[in-house]
Amino acid sequence: MDIGINEQDRRQIVQGLSRLLADSYTLYLKTHNFHWNVTGPMFQTLHLMFEQQYTELSLAVDLIAERIRALGHPAPGSYAEFARLTSIEEASGVPRAEDMIRQLVEGHETLCRTARSLFPDVDRAADEPSADLLTQRLQVHEKTAWMLRSLLEK
User: Fold this and answer.
1) CB 107 within 8 A of CB 141
2) What is the DSSP letter of 6?
3) Which region, left, alpha or beta, applies to residue 88 given φ > 0 means left and ψ of -120 to 50 means alpha?
4) Helices 97-117 and 128-151: crossing angle, nearest 10°?
5) Which residue range forms the structural domain that includes residue 44?
6) Can you give the pTM of this predicted structure?
7) How much is the pLDDT for 2?
8) Helix or strand (DSSP H, E) at 1
9) Is residue 76 within 8 Å of 21, Cβ to Cβ?
10) Interatomic CA distance for residues 154 and 79, integer angstroms
11) Based on the structure, what is the number of domains in the chain?
12) 1 within a domain of the structure (yes/no)
């Protein structure tokens, strides 16, 4: 494979993108879980908001996995692999709506940190498609975290 990025750099980028994929999939699952199980006075608002968020995440995991494949490596795709790679904790039980919001804020902020941590490797390899993907993901996660944090304001 000769796309202008050497194998060592591609492997390093793929390791980072695999963590991003695992974090994204874990947050997708958590968000979908909260969509199903949210209750309380904000039910309608949160139910719809969580649906929009997990739908966006479901599209994102495909883009991240396809980028990994374009770099010549297999994408992780099992719960076991995601559990090993993710930085996001699973939800235990069914939290109150406000705690769901807090956990999702933490998840989106974690994704921001994961995405940002990949830029040195991506920049060193002049991997513009991966840099573009990371920039797009950061825009989504920063905005979503801000919107969720706004719901917690008193």
Assistant:
1) no
2) -
3) beta
4) 160
5) 7-151
6) 0.95
7) 84
8) none
9) yes
10) 37
11) 1
12) no
**Residue at 2 is within a domain:** no
Distance from C-alpha of 81 to C-alpha of 18, rounded to nearest angstrom: 9
Instruction: Look up residue 81 and give its amino acid.
Output: E
The first and second tokens of residue 71, run together, are 């770099």
Q: Measuring CA to CA, which residue among 56, 18, 55, 111 is closest to residue 103?
A: 111
The token pair that represents 17 in the structure block: 């993108």
The one-character DSSP state at 75 is P
What letter does residue 94 receive in the DSSP assignment? -
CA distance 82 to 23: 8
In a domain? residue 59: yes
Which of 68, 67, 63, 70 is CA-nearest to residue 24?
Answer: 63
**Burial degree of 4 (CB within 10 A; 0-12, 13-18, 19+):** exposed
> For the stretch 72-103, what's the b/e string if a residue is b when 16 or more beta carbons lie within 10 angstroms of its beta carbon?
ebebbeeeeebeebbebeebeeebebeebbbb
Please report which helix (H) or strand (E) contains residue 112, including its range: helix 97-117
pLDDT computed for residue 137 by the predictor: 98
Q: Please give the structure tokens belonging to residue 98.
A: 């406000």
Mean pLDDT, contiguous 10-residue spans, the chain (154 residues)? 92 98 98 96 96 98 98 96 96 94 98 98 97 98 97 89
d(CA 143, CA 15): 25
